[in-house]
Predict the structure.
Amino acid sequence: MKRFLKLTLLVPVLIALLSACGTGKETPSGQPSATMHPSVAEKMAEPKLVYKDDRFEMKLNIDKTDYKAGEPIVYSASLTYIGEEESFTVWGSSSAKVVFTLTDGKGFDMEGASTDDLVPMEMTRGEAMEFPFVKSGGYGSEDPDAAFWKTFYSEKELLLPPGTYVISAICNFSLSQEVVVDSRYDGEVHTTVTVSE
């Protein structure tokens, strides 16, 4: 019985010790992080520069995907209403109808943020609306990478450390004012960019 009790106490200790072991991957501050999330690896393997359905066409506009460290990455998304009506109104945040995200899948994450208000935006059939890349997100003062993120968000240009990243543009609106949760539109485009030394 004592031996069983010792084993029962030993197992949680071993699990805790193994959980504390790093993977060798590092965040911007050099701290260990988890391995790449499978959904990020899938996006890296399969860029999607155009999303189209019977209502909207969304495009990711980027001239190239290979950059040198210190070279600004410039891109945008365009959204065109292509439905049957002459115009269509969508409802979403006043700060961003399209949100941009950026990740390396290992610890570098700009998840995108917007206000939670709900304002209309009328779209005319066939007229593309351009949404230039905008940084959005946040970090806590206790974050070990706080200094990195402070610099990152203070720079207007998108400058990334060497690595491979998925950049995405995601629709941030609903198709109706009445039932916002059930009418959320899920358009997304993404590609992979590589930054070398």
